[in-house]
Design a protein that fits this description.
By secondary structure, this protein is mainly alpha-helical. It has helices at about 1-15, 20-25, 30-40, 45-55, 60-70, 75-80, 85-110, 120-125, 125-135, 140-155, 190-195. The longest helix is centred in the middle third of the chain and has 24 residues, at about 85-110. It is globular and about 40 Å long. Mean pLDDT is about 80; it is low at about 165-185 and about 190-215.
């Protein structure tokens, strides 16, 4: 398992690279393999694969994003939206957002009536997971807000409001907008203590002090 995890980490640095590196990864069929790992491998390995897939969604080339959608990246990232690690969850949300944003650009370029990848996201049950995230008090507030933003922007949904005075069995209540679900396992913790941010160099993700590169 450790070897597969390290291989995924190496690939994640490649998929965060330039157009030439992405093209090489596509020609080597790495993305099909990463999708399978993300869907079916052990959690720690699957999380690394999710990083590699999400990194690739930062490409500004529509054909690259079209390819990623075609090989099942939406469903793979969608599965990891159920991950309990804050950084992995945030990265998967970012990947979904990148795909939907590029879908809007494709819609404009091709004069289409709607974003061509909205249906893909819905069929992969990603919308269901976004709605669950935005109302889950176990999850850092910034992540909830990001999920709510995606639902509103791309699916014409409404933000789910949670009553802070309502006690939900098995879930911690907010204290000043942060969660007190702390621990040393990298899972949901205080959003203001480094538990979450969009766009970072990875410090942990369960794997050490390896750098992540984002454009």
């Amino acid at each position: 398992m450790n070897l597969r995890k390290e291989v995924c980490w190496v690939i994640s640095n490649i998929t965060a690279g330039n157009a030439k590196q992405l093209d090489a990864a596509i020609k080597a069929d790495l993305f099909q393999a990463l999708v399978k790992v993300c869907l079916f491998d052990k959690d720690a390995v699957a999380r690394e694969a999710a990083w590699a897939l999400s990194n690739a969604t930062t490409s500004d080339q529509p054909n690259v994003l079209q390819f990623l959608v075609h090989v099942g990246v939406v469903g793979a990232l969608g599965k990891q939206l159920g991950c309990s690690q804050v950084r992995t969850l945030a990265v998967c949300l970012e990947g979904i957002e990148n795909i939907l944003a590029m879908g809007d650009k494709v819609m404009e370029m091709k004069d289409m009536q709607e974003n061509p990848w909205i249906k893909v996201v819905e069929e992969a049950h990603v919308l269901d997971k976004l709605e669950q995230i935005q109302s889950n008090m176990n999850i850092p507030e910034k992540l909830q807000d990001k999920a709510a933003e995606l639902v509103r922007k791309y699916f014409e949904g409404e933000e789910v409001e949670v009553d802070d005075d309502e006690v939900i069995e098995g879930q911690p209540q907010r204290e000043g907008g942060s969660e007190r679900f702390n621990g040393d396992d990298g899972n949901f913790g205080d959003a203001d203590d480094g538990g979450f941010s969009f766009g970072w160099n990875n410090e942990d993700n369960g794997g050490g002090d390896q750098d992540r590169w984002f454009e």
